[in-house]
Specification:
Layout: E1 2-3, E2 50-51, E3 54-57, E4 80-83, H1 91-98, E5 102-104, E6 111-113, E7 124-127, E8 137-138, E9 147-148, H2 149-166, E10 175-180, H3 183-197, E11 209-215, H4 221-234, H5 240-249, H6 259-273, E12 304-305, E13 308-309, H7 323-331, H8 334-339, H9 357-363, E14 364-365, H10 372-380, E15 384-390, H11 398-407, E16 412-421, E17 424-432, E18 435-440, H12 447-450, H13 452-464
Parallel strand pairs: 4-10, 9-14, 10-11, 11-15, 15-18
Antiparallel strand pairs: 1-3, 2-8, 3-7, 5-6, 12-13, 16-17, 17-18
Helix pairs in contact: 1-7, 2-3, 3-10, 4-5, 4-11, 5-6
Length: 478
C-alpha cells in the first residue's frame, strides 16, 4: 500500500505514518482499510534544506487490487520511479490519476481502486520534483530560482541515495526509471548520473539501475517541434498555408526563433487551444474554475525564450478531460492534507495545484535542447531502454519521437509491426539494437490514463524483457 518519504530541513532522520490512523484517507474505497506500518505513506526527514514528498507503492496486498494470476506470485523486485515536469506533480498526476493503486474520483469526492495500477508489476516510487512542486518546499528562496535539468537530476539522485539508506532492503533490487513529457529529459539525465556514479563504488553508493522507459517524451527540440508542426498539419488542425509558412520561416535548430516563426507557431497553438492539445480526439474540459489552464494557450509566442516554447500548455487529457481539476479539489481538502501530513510546516502558501506555473513559466532555466547523446551513451552501457508514444498526442507527437529515434542511427532488429490487446491492434513497435519504440493506438499524452490495460501490458513486457504480443489471438492477462 502507499508510502510517502520526504527529505526536509536540518532535523534527524525520523519516520511517521503518512496515512495517520486518527485521520484515515478521505472516502477510501475500502471502509475496513487500516494503515499498514510497513507499507503506508511515510515522511522521512534528514539534514537538507528542501523537502521532497514522495509516494512509495508496493505490490497489492488487498485481493480486490490483485489479479487472480498474481495472488500466488512472488512480489516483483523492481522499484520503478516515475517522473513528470517541469512543475507538475508526480503524485497529483501519476499516482492519483494515472497508474497508482488509488485514483481520485470525479469532483474530488474521494478515492477509487485502479484495477490497472502499475504496482501489479513493480514497486512504485513517485517523487515531487523540482522543489516547489506539489507539497514540496524549501527553506532557501534561491532554490526556487536556480532550477534546471542539472539541479533536478542532482536532487533526485541525492533523494534516491537517502531513500535507499533508509530502506536498505531495496538496495539490491532491479531499479528502473520511468516518466513522461518533460520527464523525457529528467529520466535519461538521472539515469546517466546514476550510471556514471556507479562506476566509482568507493565514492558513491551503488544503485542497481537496469534501464528506463519514457512516454511521449520531450527529447530533442528540433525534432520535437518539427514533429509538432507536421502532426498539426497531417491531422487537419492547421491549413496547408500555415504549414507551408512554418516550413518557410521557422528554423527549429536555432536557439532563438524569429518573430515570423513565433507568429506562425502561435497560429498552431491557438487552434490547439480550441481542442484538447494532449489528446486531440478527446473532449476538452470546460470547467471554469480550473486554475491550471494556461492563458498562454491563446498566445504562446510571447513566452518564447532561448529556443524553447515556454507556453507549454499543461498535459491535460483523458477519458474525463477534467481529471486535473478533480485532483486539485481532492488535495486541497483540509482533512486530506491532515491525513497526508501535508504542509505541516506551513511553508506552502496558497492553493495546492497539479502544476506550478510559476516554475514552468518564470523560474525554470531551459538549457538542454537534446538528450539524444545520453541515449547513445546508455545504449552502449547496456541499459534496457523503451520509448512509448500515444498516437493522439499533439504536444509531443509520435512523428517527432520517430524522428528522434531515427536520428540515433541504430540498426533495426525487428521491423515495424503491430502489437495486440484483446484481439485488437493496440499499437505498433520497432526494435532497434538497444532500444524499443512503441506506439499506443488512440492514447494521448497520458497513456496510462487513456489506455490503462494496454499500458499495463506495455510495462509488464518492458520489465520482463519480453516482446509485446504480436498475435491477434493473444488475450489480456489482466
Amino acid at each position: 500500500m502507499p508510502s510517502v518519504l520526504s527529505i526536509s530541513s536540518s532535523s534527524p532522520l525520523r519516520l511517521r505514518s503518512f496515512f495517520d490512523p486518527r485521520f484515515p484517507p478521505r472516502f477510501h474505497p475500502d471502509p475496513s482499510y487500516q494503515p499498514n506500518p510497513s507499507s503506508d505513506w511515510l515522511l522521512v526527514q534528514t539534514e537538507a534544506r528542501s523537502a521532497f514528498p514522495e509516494a512509495f507503492v508496493r505490490p497489492p496486498l488487498c485481493p480486490q487490487l490483485q489479479h487472480p494470476r498474481d495472488r500466488d506470485r512472488i512480489p516483483p523486485s523492481r522499484p520503478i520511479y516515475p517522473r513528470f515536469g517541469p512543475g507538475c506533480s508526480s503524485i497529483g498526476f501519476g499516482e492519483a490519476v494515472e497508474l497508482g493503486p488509488l485514483r481520485v474520483q470525479k469532483f474530488g469526492t474521494g478515492l477509487e481502486f485502479n484495477n490497472h495500477a502499475w504496482n501489479k508489476e513493480a514497486n512504485l516510487l513517485f517523487l515531487e520534483s523540482p522543489v516547489g512542486v506539489g507539497f514540496s518546499y524549501t527553506n532557501t528562496s534561491s532554490d526556487l530560482t536556480a532550477v534546471d535539468d542539472r539541479v533536478v537530476a542532482k536532487d533526485a539522485y541525492s533523494f534516491l541515495i537517502n531513500w535507499l539508506r533508509r530502506f536498505p532492503q531495496y538496495q539490491d533490487h532491479d531499479f528502473y526509471i520511468s516518466g513522461e513529457s518533460y520527464g523525457g529529459h529528467y529520466v535519461p539525465q538521472l539515469a546517466e548520473l546514476v550510471y556514471e556514479r556507479n562506476k566509482d563504488r568507493q565514492k558513491y553508493q551503488y544503485i542497481n539501475l537496469k534501464g528506463f522507459i519514457v512516454g511521449n517524451p520531450e527529447t530533442n527540440d528540433y525534432y520535437d517541434y518539427k514533429g509538432l508542426a507536421e502532426y498539426a498539419w497531417s491531422h487537419a488542425v492547421v491549413s496547408d498555408q500555415v504549414y507551408e509558412l512554418i516550413n518557410k520561416v521557422c528554423d527549429f535548430r536555432a536557439d532563438n526563433w524569429s518573430k515570423a516563426c513565433m507568429d506562425a507557431m502561435g497560429i498552431v497553438m491557438k487552434q490547439y487551444h480550441l481542442i484538447d492539445f494532449y489528446n486531440i480526439y478527446a473532449p476538452k474540459c470546460n470547467l471554469a474554475q480550473t486554475t491550471t489552464t494556461s492563458p498562454a494557450a491563446d498566445d504562446t509566442t510571447e513566452a518564447k525564450s532561448k529556443g524553447r516554447l515556454k507556453g507549454r500548455i499543461r498535459m491535460y487529457s483523458g477519458y474525463d478531460p477534467c481529471f486535473f481539476a478533480y485532483a486539485e479539489d481532492y488535495f486541497n481538502k483540509i482533512d486530506v492534507q491532515r491525513s497526508l501530513h501535508a504542509n505541516v510546516s506551513g511553508k506552502i502558501q496558497g492553493k495546492w495545484t497539479v502544476c506550478n506555473d510559476s516554475i514552468f513559466y518564470n523560474t525554470y532555466k531551459y538549457t538542454v535542447f537534446s538528450v539524444l547523446p545520453i541515449y547513445s551513451k546508455l545504449i552502449k552501457g547496456g541499459l534496457r531502454i523503451w520509448v512509448y508514444s500515444g498516437d493522439a498526442d499533439g504536444r509531443v507527437p509520435v512523428i517527432g519521437t520517430r524522428y528522434c529515434m531515427d536520428a540515433l542511427g541504430l540498426p533495426v532488429k525487428t521491423h515495424w509491426q503491430p502489437w495486440y490487446h484483446n484481439k485488437q491492434v493496440a499499437g505498433r513497435f520497432v526494435e532497434y539494437e538497444g532500444l524499443t519504440m512503441v506506439t499506443v493506438r488512440g492514447a494521448g499524452h497520458l497513456v496510462p490514463l487513456n489506455k490503462p490495460e494496454e499500458a499495463l501490458v506495455l510495462i509488464n513486457s518492458f520489465l520482463m524483457g519480453n516482446h509485446l504480443p504480436t498475435h491477434k489471438s493473444c488475450m489480456s492477462i489482466y
